[in-house]
Amino acid sequence: MKAFAYYNAKNLDDAIAVLSDGGGQSKALAGGTDLLGEIKNRYVQPDRLVNLKSIRGLDKISYSGSAGLKIGPLATLTEITQNKDIKQKYPGLAEAAESVSSPQLRNMGTIGGNICQRPRCWYYRGEEYPCIRKFGGTCFAVSGRNKYHCILNGGPCFIVHPSDVAPMLMAYRARLAVKGRSGEKEVAMDDFFVLPTDDSTKENILQAGELITGINVPPQPPNMAGCYLKFKERESRDFALVSAAVALELDGEACRQASIVLGGVSPVPHRAVEAEQILNGKAITGELVEKAADAALADASPMDENEYKIPLTKTILKRAVLRAAGVGV
Amino acid sequence: MTKDKNKTLLSMKVNGKPLEVMVNPTWTLLRVLREELRLTGTKKGCEQGDCGLCTVILDGKAVNACLVLALQAESKEIETIEGLGKEDNLHPLQKSFIENGAVQCGFCTPGILMSAEALLRKNPKPSVDEIRIGISGNLCRCTGYSKIIKAINAVTKK
Description:
The structure holds 2 protein chains of 2 kinds. Chain A is an alpha+beta fold. Chain A contains 13 helices and 13 strands. Chain A has helices spanning 12-20, 35-40, 77-82, 84-89, 91-98, 103-108, 111-115, 122-125, 132-135, 165-171, 273-279, 286-296, 309-325; strands spanning 5-8, 26-29, 48-51, 61-64, 68-71, 175-180, 183-188, 211-217, 224-231, 242-251, 254-263, 270-271, 282-283. In chain A, the strands form 3 sheets. Chain A has a 5-stranded antiparallel beta sheet. In chain A, strands 9, 10, 11, 12 and 13 form a 5-stranded antiparallel beta sheet that branches. In chain A, strands 1-3-2 form a 3-stranded parallel beta sheet, covered by helices on one side. The longest helix of chain A is centred in the C-terminal third of the chain and has 17 residues, at 309-325. The radius of gyration of chain A is 19 Å and the shape is globular. Chain B is 31% helix and 16% strand. In chain B, strands 2-1-5-3-4 form a 5-stranded mixed beta sheet, sandwiched between helices. Chain B is elongated and about 50 Å long. Chain B starts with 7 loop residues before the first strand and ends with a helix. Chain A binds chain B through residues 1-6, 29, 32-33, 36-37, 40, 49, 51, 53, 78, 101-105, 107-108, 236-237, and chain B through 6, 8, 24-26, 28, 47-49, 52, 55, 58, 61-64, 67-69, 71-72, 115, 118-119, 132-134, 136-138.
């Protein structure tokens, strides 16, 4: 491991100043469970780690009926799973956080870090592969092994976004407070992630020195039903092969408004707009959901080894919608 | 204590004892426990947070010591397998592992015991499914999970 300095940030502005300085050679450290893996694999070699946990108050979770849910970026995934307001009002988010890895990693890993985690692509993670995401070279998945890669929006890089929490937050139409040297802004999660066609070296819009300072989830209507389902290759703990985050505003048997975001299929959490449009304003039936699932995957373009993700995604989408709507099949 | 300009003083509590140790910022908590403090009961495995061999309890919560930088443990309380029981005074979980044949090669055992201990403190009467989730971050490559789960379950019945 290359030597690095360790700096305890005094406050948010101090962290931002230190991280902005030095041409991106400083890295923000929250739980560290993703970053340390990258440093150990030697393709990330920071000069300095800026510890954010020394900043007080960034791990708070609060809820009010008028303002909705406010989550500090340093809240751990365990804290998300145990929070009463989240379990009651945003059950899909508790499910998504609970589905992340192991107790050990949920105890250290933060929600901000989970949203900003780097891809699990084995070429990206392997120090011996000068891949397009690391160094702007080539994508080895195209002619290599691509079982876990994307089936939508691929090229020139074919990663999938690994977060479980991000699709569910997006389904609940969360917004992120982002602070940098030039000030603070709020970004809808729908506008936070970046496709490789726009930039194949980063997964989101954050610039060096910018940090997520809050995750704001709007109050949900009382008849909102949310759930998060994921297929894993290994049942005990794994990243999603594919996943579905669903939030339905119900009106009796009808779905007034559907919000559906898929994980494991695209380089970013993927909003299934076509599926939402099919469900909006109609009574949820097995047949309708079947149609919505077909529409969501109509543009899928699988690679050599991941065609299986198409039926798998359709199934998880159908199951999640039916479960949220409380419709038995 | 020798002076080294690359090193920083780390203060933490390990198994109830406050201590100070000079650490390099790149060192993990696992390295400090094993190499500096010679607490080698905590095992080193994948070093990527996959296997759970290095599980210790940090401020009451199970964590992978391989993915915690030593300096992240500043002012924290760490518990390792050495603090769980003594040879002549075993912890109930340790006794139960022996009674139920839950130890094969033994390499995963310290990590699993720490995960189980963290679970039982929070949830003294877990269901079998909750036990499974509680140790889902620990791999046993002898694959002796049935007896491990049985051993943990037996403790909760006492």
